[in-house]
Amino acid sequence: MRITQEADYALRMVSLLAKSGAVFSYGAVQGTLFAPAMAETVKVPMGFANKILRKLSLAGVVKAMRGITGGYYLLRDPAGLTVKEVIETIDGPIEISKCLSENCECLNNPNKDCCRFHNVFGVLNQMLVERLDRLTIAMMVNADLSMSDLLETVK
Q1: Which CATH class, in words, describes the domain spanning 5-153?
Q2: Which of 31, 72, 129, 143 counts the highest number of beta carbons within 10 A?
Q3: DSSP 8-state secondary structure symbol assigned to residue 114
């Protein structure tokens, strides 16, 4: 499985919002970032940034505010928003193999319960999903959290 470039950019844009404090908190918007500034910082073409922000907005992760002080901000608390959620917002469910999909009919072994590959891939996929779900955006942007502590979270 490969996380798409779109999901990678989404993670970086969400992290940028969290790091800058552009978050809805205590009933008020604490700050915003303009889409062009985010696109430039993350090195993503503006059209692609808009596409990503639209998906994140539809999922309730970010919101746009119009006006002179407008821009984007996080609707979700970075401490409760996981890397897994952002990836799945963009890429859909995390599946390391096509055979893990509900609607996949295996030509090699129609009985998935007996298939060694399906079962091993299922366990590995679950491990990956659980680890990505432990990792929050707040952790990713916390400069006080050492790299070894951050990596310990996903072990």
Answers
A1: mainly alpha
A2: 72
A3: G
